[in-house]
Structure formats: structure tokens, C-alpha cells
Amino acid sequence: MGYASMVDEVAAAIADPIRRGILELLRDGDLPAGEIADRFPVSRPAVSRHLRVLRESGLVRSELVGRQRLYRLDADRFTALVDWLAGFRRPRGWAHHLDALETEVHRTRRERRTRDRPHRAVGETA
To answer: Please, are residues 59 and 73 in contact by the beta-carbon 8 Å criterion?
Structure first.
């Protein structure tokens, strides 16, 4: 799966408030499908469809334990989306130029302190 399609799939999966609620529940630990369904004001088949979307997007995994199907969050699938979103937080325009100016001011001060410091022989103390 390509980077862009992975971002699209995860973004589509978390676009629904019920699915985001399910992910928040699973953040605290594994839960059986029935317990997840009891926490939402929609029918069990509707919750089952939401779980299927989350499972197909790779955000949750399910495991059959006895007679229960346990769901588990797989937060690693958020990585591509988080990386893509982080690109919008980098400084742009003037903010980027001001960051570069700040770096240059620090470098100049460090060089000036080094230049103005009296030279001492190796092993000599102040």
C-alpha cells in the first residue's frame, strides 16, 4: 500500500465520530465487541460495521478468544497520517527566516566568546 493511500484510508476511518470513540476506548486496552457496542447509542450491527472499517484500515485487530472477539488498537497505523500532518506545523515564510536568524545570532555569539577568551596553555588553570 502506498503512502498516500495509507493516509487516505486512515483519515477516512477516523472521520466518523463513532469510530473515533471506539479508538479512544481501545486506547485503554482490549475490549470484546459486545462491550464496545454497549457504549454507543447505535445498534450492534452498526458498531460491527464501524469495527469492520477500523479493522480493514488496520487501526484495530481482532482476535477470537473463546467465544468472544477481542479488539485491539494498532496505533502504528497512525504514523503516516501523523507525519503528513506534522508537515503543516513546520515554520514557513517569515517564521522560517526568523528561526534561521536566531541560529545565526547564537553561532556568532559563540564564536565571539571563543575569540575573546584568553588563550591558555594546555594544563594551565585560571
So the answer is: yes
Distances (CA, A) of 95 to 15, 85, 109, 117, 124: 31, 18, 21, 33, 45
Number of residues written out for the chain: 126
pLDDT at 91 over 90: no
Q: Is 50 exposed, middle or buried (0-12, 13-18, 19+ CB in 10 A)?
A: buried
Positions of E strands within 1-109:
31-32, 60-65, 68-73
CA distance 58 to 72: 10
| Paired residues of 91 in beta bridges | none
Answer positive or negative: Cα dihedral of 39, 45, 49, 54: positive
pLDDT digits (tens, 9 = 90+) for 77-89: 999 899 888 888 7
**Cα–Cα distance, 21 to 66 (Å, whole number):** 26
In contact, 70 and 62? CB cutoff 8 Å: yes
